[in-house]
């Protein structure tokens, strides 16, 4: 009944090692592949007819596409659409991992800090590389907004720089912490149910934590979607900085 | 007992290196698989998903705008046809009214002519009848005068014992004239 146990990575197959690094096919990797399989499978199945009058599933896939496309357009402008595949990949990967994680006994890939940190650093790196590639040193205008009084400038630059550098941290920790805390809370309340059922007459109290678990599961479903959306929209906002640093 | 189990679990977790998400032991494999799977997703999304889903959506938008254009063109044609139809209808109505008026006039004229002939005919007949009546009346009056003379002669003959002469009869010919 250890609520931390669900985050345990268990090796499924040893693949070998390069230097000091061991590469192992783990349960985490299996769930990542499951995520890919679901995305590819659902898309290909939904779009098999590719019909002008969509069926239910095709309609659902199209509305997810439109939803993310609208988000990208609103946050990063029409130019931002060149990053649409990237933002959609992030959204789809995080959303599917979050929802797969809600299935009891499954593993939540996004509750691993290394995964969320890698994704956040990827976003951060793309913003910096694209920003400098596109605007050269003009990208640095991002840290010195025009219209601020000169004597405030040093302070503003420091604050802007700090907030920029903290972005990957906040982006990764937000998703990681939400998933981790939610799953721990779920496991704790579910554990109460099991403990009460096994505790003689106290089993009459077992429905209370059970109801709590169900309510938490609903909340976690919301969080699963919301965190994927937050990650996607923040990515768009950061990409907007790289596209239009002059504000 | 419960406390003992807890410490045992803790010890077990401790043994494994603490909090699993922070264990660096699996970081390299995690990164490898993340790179592979996320790369696969990115490839799939950029090469297949965007083209198929985005293409379908764009095609549908094209189709809808094309259909709307066609519909508005068809509507314009329909409006034209309606106008032409209304015009033809008005023309036909005018023509029909013209024909009706002509017919009515012709019939009026014909009936007027017939009325006139009948009237002339009737007045001719009337005149003839009047003439006939006048002749008959004159004849009758002549007879009346003769009968009256005869009667008067007879009365005179009875009263006087001798018949009056024709001159006497002629003298009382007009009673109203010589009283």
Would you give an account of this structure?
The complex is a heterodimer of chains A (247) and B (179). Chain A is mainly alpha-helical and 247 residues long. Chain A has one domain. In chain A, 67% of the residues lie in helices and 6% in strands. Chain A has six helices and two strands; from the N terminus they run E-E-H-H-H-H-H-H. Chain A has a two-stranded antiparallel ribbon. In chain A, a hairpin with a 2-residue loop joins strand 1 and strand 2. The longest helix of chain A is centred in the last third of the chain and has 45 residues. Helices cover 87% and strands 0% of the residues of chain B. Chain B has one domain. Chain B has 179 residues and is mostly helical.
Topology at a glance:
The complex is a heterodimer of chains A (247) and B (179).
Chain A (H helix, E strand, L loop, with lengths): L10 E8 L2 E6 H20 L9 H21 L7 H19 L10 H23 L17 H45 L9 H37 L4
Antiparallel strand pairs in A: 1-2
Helix pairs in contact in A: 1-2, 1-3, 2-3, 2-6, 3-6, 4-5, 4-6, 5-6
Chain B lengths: L1 H15 L10 H134 L5 H6 L8
Give the overall pLDDT of chain A as a whole number.
89
Strand residues, percent of chain B: under 5%
What structural category characterises the helix and strand content of chain A? Answer: mainly alpha
Total number of strands of chain B: 0
Record the strand order, biggest sheet of chain A. Answer: 1-2
What would the principal axes of the Cα set say about the shape of chain B?
A: rod-shaped
What is the terminal separation of chain A in angstroms? 53 Å
Q: Specify the biggest β-sheet of chain A.
A: 2 strands, antiparallel
State the end-to-end distance of chain B.
Answer: 180 Å
Secondary-structure element order of chain B, N to C? HHH
Helix content of chain B: over 70%
Number of domains of chain A: 1
Q: What count of helical segments of chain A does DSSP give? A: 6
Number of domains of chain B: 1
Describe the sheet with the most strands of chain B. none
N-to-C SSE series of chain A? Answer: EEHHHHHH
**Class by helix and strand content of chain B?**
mainly alpha
Spans of chain A of at least 5 consecutive residues whose pLDDT stays below 50 are none
């Amino acid at each position: 009944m250890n609520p931390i146990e669900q985050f345990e990575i268990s090796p499924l197959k040893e693949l070998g090692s390069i230097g000091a690094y061991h590469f192992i096919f783990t349960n985490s990797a299996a769930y990542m592949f499951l995520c890919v399989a679901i995305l590819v499978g659902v898309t290909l199945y939904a779009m098999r007819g590719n019909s002008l009058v969509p069926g239910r599933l095709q309609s659902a896939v199209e509305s997810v596409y439109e939803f993310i496309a609208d988000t990208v357009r609103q946050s990063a402008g029409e130019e931002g659409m060149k990053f649409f595949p990237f933002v959609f990949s992030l959204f789809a990967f995080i959303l599917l991992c979050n929802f797969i994680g809600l299935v009891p006994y499954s593993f939540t890939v996004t509750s691993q800090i290394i995964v969320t940190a890698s994704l956040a650093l990827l976003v951060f790196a793309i913003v910096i590389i694209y920003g400098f590639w596109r605007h050269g040193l003009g990208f640095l205008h991002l840290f010195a907004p025009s219209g601020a009084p000169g004597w405030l400038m040093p302070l503003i630059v420091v604050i802007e720089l700090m907030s920029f550098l903290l972005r990957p941290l906040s982006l990764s920790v937000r998703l990681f912490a939400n998933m981790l805390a939610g799953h721990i809370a779920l496991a704790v309340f579910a554990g109460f149910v099991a403990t009460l059922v096994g505790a003689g007459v106290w089993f009459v109290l077992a429905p209370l934590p059970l109801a709590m678990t169900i309510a938490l599961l609903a909340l976690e479903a919301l969080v699963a979607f919301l965190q994927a959306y937050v990650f996607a929209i923040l990515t768009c906002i950061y990409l907007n900085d790289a596209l239009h640093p002059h504000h | 007992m419960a406390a003992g189990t807890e410490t045992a679990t803790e010890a077990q977790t401790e043994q494994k290196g603490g909090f699993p998400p922070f264990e660096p032991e699996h970081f390299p494999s995690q990164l490898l698989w993340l790179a592979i799977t996320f790369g696969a997703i990115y490839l799939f999304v950029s090469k297949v998903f965007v083209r198929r889903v985005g293409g379908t959506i764009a095609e549908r938008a094209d189709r809808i705008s094309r259909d709307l254009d066609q519909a508005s063109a068809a509507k314009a044609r329909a409006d034209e046809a309606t106008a032409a139809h209304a015009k033809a209808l008005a023309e036909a109505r005018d023509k029909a009214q013209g024909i009706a008026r002509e017919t009515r006039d012709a019939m009026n004229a014909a009936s007027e002519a017939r009325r006139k002939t009948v009237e002339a005919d009737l007045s001719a007949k009337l005149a003839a009848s009047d003439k006939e009546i006048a002749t008959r009346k004159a004849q009758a009056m002549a007879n009346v005068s003769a009968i009256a003379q005869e009667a008067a002669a007879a009365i005179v003959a009875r009263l006087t014992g001798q018949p009056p002469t024709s001159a006497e009869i002629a003298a009382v010919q007009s009673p109203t004239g010589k009283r």
